[in-house]
Amino acid sequence: MSAEGGAGAPLVALVAGASSGIGAAVARRLAARGSAVALVGRREAELKEVAESIRAAGGTALPLALDLAEEGAPADAVAMTAAALGPVGLLVCSAGAIRLAAVHETEERHWERQLRVNLTVPFLLAREVLPGMRERGCGWVVNIGSGVGSEVVPGSGGYGVSKHAVHRLTELIHEENRDRGVRAVTVAPGWVSTRLAARPADLGVPEEEVLDAEDIADTVAWLLDRPARMSVGPLIRVEPTASRAAAGDAMTRHLNRSRAEGAGRAAEENR
Ligand SMILES: NC(=O)c1ccc[n+]([C@@H]2O[C@H](COP(=O)([O-])OP(=O)(O)OC[C@H]3O[C@@H](n4cnc5c(N)ncnc54)[C@H](OP(=O)(O)O)[C@@H]3O)[C@@H](O)[C@H]2O)c1
Fold first, then answer.
1. What single string gives the DSSP state of each residue in the chain?
2. Positions of the region Disordered (predicted)?
């Protein structure tokens, strides 16, 4: 198996954004493959629940309740993982913040929050783990990007910009480290049924046409099974098959719906 450390032991993993959705599914999958996994997120109860499900299946999990947007938190997460489980050999960044709005409607604090969580946090985590991976001659950095990081979707605002930039960050990490045995990949999903995305039923799309978090965990597991000589990506898009479940279009419809609801609420309040 390619996702192994030098001595053949599975790599220690750190999953940022592991309390729900894609990150939780990826964390469970990595643990099932034998990795000891640090689970990072802000919601302690949810993290503990994910950790319990991993332990119940015989795996090793370390829940770390941290706000990664806070100064020093990414470095703390890496240090706490290394102290408890060993050096991080597999970093997955799935933490995400989203606030859809056209550029002229975007508040500065929302812009900064999205850039911080979606771009700066992956940068800071990668900066912490890369020196060790380079030294050991193996490692993985998997960033969860987005289809709207590759497409110009009106209203994707700071979210789309941050995802576009994280795709480039991953490409840089890939080029700078490929000769040191470190592979970097962005897995960029389209619409996945999670708390972060619009509910399919709200936009008239059958639930089964939208991706499941397990589909993204499958993709990550598939990547990790490639032989060491093989690099895939560095950008892999995973989209629903049906065009009516395409993320860009859904995002625009979701935004228009939220605007209409907002306008309705404002009219109601003014009455
Ligand atoms: N769902 C989709 O359609 C879709 C499509 C394309 C890309 N993505 C990307 O997939 C990734 C995962 O999202 P998801 O869909 O699985 O939604 P989700 O269930 O809401 O997951 C987001 C995760 O990010 C964590 N997070 C957010 N801010 C954080 C912070 N400041 N510090 C630490 N953790 C933080 C959340 O944990 P806490 O709340 O506990 O902190 C949660 O675990 C995101 O990067 C998202 O942009 C999703």
1. --SB-TTSPBPEEEEET-SSHHHHHHHHHHHHTT--EEEEES-HHHHHHHHHHHHHTT--EEEEE--TTSTTHHHHHHHHHHHHH-SEEEEEE---------GGG--HHHHHHHHIIIIIHHHHHHHHHHHHHHHHT-EEEEEE--GGGTS--TT-HHHHHHHHHHHHHHHHHHHHHGGGTEEEEEEEES-B-STTSPPGGGGT--GGGSB-HHHHHHHHHHHHTS-TT----SEEEE--SSGGG-HHHHHHHHHHHHHHHHHHHHHHHH-
2. 243-271
